[in-house]
Amino acid sequence: MSTEPPTDTAPSSSADAARPTAPERGRTAHDDRATAHVDHAAALPLDADIDVADAPRGLRPVHLRPRAVGLVALGGAAGTGVREALALTWPTAAGGFPVTIFAINIVGAFVLGVLLEFLGRRGSDEGRRRAARLLLGTGVLGGFTTYSTFMTDTANLAVTDHALGVALAYAAASLLVGVAASALGVALGSRIHETARRRATLEPAPGETTRSTGASR
Amino acid sequence: MNPALAFALVCLAGGVGAALRFVVDGAVRSRWSLAFPLGTVLINVSGSFVLGALTGAALHGALSHALLLVLGGGLMGGYTTFSTASLETYRLAAECRIGPALANGAGTLVVAAFAAALGLALGAAL
Q: Has UniProt tagged this entry with the keyword Metal-binding (chain A) (predicted)?
């Protein structure tokens, strides 16, 4: 046990192993690679892939890949912008039920259910599907919906405005309607996928004999 | 602050917050092997606490309205997420894992509400 050679445990060597192998080229080389990477991805067919593009970097976890983090940040900025615009347009009076954030969170939970169920049924989480999940799901819908505002409004209603009933109603309604919206979203996402798949294969829906699937929807 | 600039900063902060959520969630996932979405729970509880503190500070004049908008609605709004929390609760329930579903849904809600209230009190005391 203790007789193993110490080479692999040296911190410097294991850290170097995780890095890309172009140490001589420095910063400009990195920039070149980033540009080439974009062109390369654009030239590839449908499943042009984050994984393919990142392959030279080894098996770095997705949440540490600059392109994945960038997609999430881009989507998050857009989603946050829409939420804030809506929240500023329809503010809630002190002591009132926060209708705008409630609606935003419910819509977000529903759409995320549709999106993730649809993408999950289309195929494995890679390439364009993963990019769509990160940009639209983790980014846009994650930024659009908010848990912190929901909770701070709830605490404010209970503590500052002494509107405990409104606070409890807001919390319970958000939790229950949110889960129901997710369930509906998942059901719709699954249905959209099935419809698209049948159209692609020209296969009739179960129970459908005379009507075509195209006309029924 | 110029309203257009403030709004741009809110969006930018939201992007940073969302990226932070992605990295934190990934880091938790890589260390947590159980099928319970601990990452989202920690993110939502910590974000609720921080937004509570920012709001408490703003209510007592220690933080400007513009800064509350950028750091609160932007950064913490982008960092925390309701959609993922709801979907994860639904998925646990759909797998008939009722205990974890209740812990994720109602449990997070109660803990995060207390975290936000604690933040409000601390922020007001600053």
A: yes
